[in-house]
UniProtKB/TrEMBL annotation:
Catalytic activity field: glutathione(out) + ATP + H2O = glutathione(in) + ADP + phosphate + H(+)
Subcellular location, record wording: Cell inner membrane
Highest taxon listed in the record's lineage: Bacteria
Function: Part of the ABC transporter complex GsiABCD involved in glutathione import. Responsible for energy coupling to the transport system.
GO cellular component terms, semicolon-separated: plasma membrane
Membrane topology note: Peripheral membrane protein
Protein name from the UniProt record: Glutathione import ATP-binding protein GsiA
Positions of the ABC transporter domain: 1-244
Lineage summary: Bacteria, Pseudomonadati, Pseudomonadota, Alphaproteobacteria, Rhodobacterales
Database matches in CDD domains: ABC_NikE_OppD_transporters (cd03257)
SUPFAM superfamilies given in the database record: P-loop containing nucleoside triphosphate hydrolases
């Protein structure tokens, strides 16, 4: 439960109470100051749940999330404004009856970052930073395009001066041309403001573009973690390999050449995860050990530190030899 000065750290499990399953289990993660950590995985893998846990929106059933040692939640209630979130759908997250300037000003006034008297110039400053004309502060959400609304949502989050920003699929609902603009804005802001960011996306090319490190999730667990270029360049987990494998791979079966499907099989139900490695029913490298023993995160072969590059697979040496 962790943490030294400049890090946010999470060690937790989340139980979806209604169904009594762990949506996220045994996750242990540190995000370093100023970095963008990408969180990827198929839909339902728990990446949004993990984002909500880190943001203090959802209480973990065990474990805790801290920023510089200070818990994000106390007694199941969000206890800090140091984490802010940008969601996928900016229209749903903006109050349609409120002028967007008031929406951006609300939190900073409540938390003393500005006063009611100074709010207009405070908001104007944030509007400019996200590429919006400050005169639009008096307009309502429906008067903006999707991309502009996401800029407003970003301004609202950043106006709270967070140390940590959680972005959950922030460009997934936008047109492709607008996606690029928002991503460029995001890159500019994270650099200029030295933000620490967790960037959740199912889109690997987006994650690759914005992240310093990446965590790959499968059925509520992190299965691979490391610098983004290394994880995507030489994946150590068969799931990561399959996830990025747009090029069909050829493998030998006896002396017959067979095609290795990108990812065979369905994602198992989190209600009844398979024994051992959760990925074994879909894994081309699975052995009897895999269906018996759950692999734990360990350093990738040849690496000294677990936090440099880590993987949860019994046979990762087959992908990344030491
Ligand atoms: Fe595949 Fe076994 Fe590694 Fe799981 S532990 S990913 S089943 S090789
Ligand atoms: Mg999601």
């Amino acid at each position: 439960n962790l943490t030294t000065g400049e890090k946010i750290a999470a060690k937790l499990g989340a139980r979806v109470e209604t169904r009594s399953v762990h949506a996220v289990s045994d996750v242990s993660l540190e995000v370093r100051k100023g970095e963008t950590l990408g969180l990827v995985g198929e839909s339902g893998c728990g990446k949004s749940t993990l984002g909500r846990l880190i943001a203090g929106i959802l209480p973990p059933s065990s474990g805790r999330v801290t920023i510089d040692g200070v818990p994000v939640m106390t007694h199941g209630v969000k206890a800090t404004t140091r984490v802010q979130t940008v969601f996928q759908d900016p229209f749903a997250s903006l109050d349609p009856r409120m002028k967007v300037g008031d929406t951006v000003a609300e939190g900073p006034i409540t938390h003393g970052l500005t006063t009611r008297a100074d709010a207009a110039s405070y908001v104007a400053e944030w509007f400019r930073k996200v590429g919006l004309d400050p005169v639009w502060a008096d307009r309502y959400p429906h008067q903006f395009s999707g991309g502009q609304r996401q800029r407003i949502a970003i301004a609202r989050a950043l106006a709270m001066k967070p140390d940590v920003l959680i972005c959950d699929e922030p460009v997934a609902s936008l047109d492709v041309s607008i996606q690029a603009q928002i991503i460029n804005l995001f890159l500019e802001l994270t650099r200029d403001l030295n933000l620490t960011t967790v960037f959740i996306s199912h889109d690997l090319s987006v994650v690759r573009h914005v992240s310093d490190r990446v965590a790959v999730m499968y059925l509520g667990r992190i299965v691979e973690l490391g610098p983004v270029a290394e994880v995507f360049g030489t994946p150590a987990h068969p799931y990561t390999d399959a996830l990025i494998g747009s090029v069909p791979k050829l493998v030998l079966d006896g002396d017959e050449l067979v095609r290795f499907e990108t990812i065979k099989g369905e994602v198992p139900s989190p209600l009844s995860p398979p024994a051992g490695c959760f990925f074994h029913p879909r894994c081309a490298l699975a052995t009897p050990e895999c269906s018996r023993d759950m692999p734990l995160m360990r350093p990738v072969a040849g690496r000294a530190e677990a936090d440099t590059r880590a993987v949860a697979c019994h046979h990762s040496e087959q992908l990344v030899p030491g």
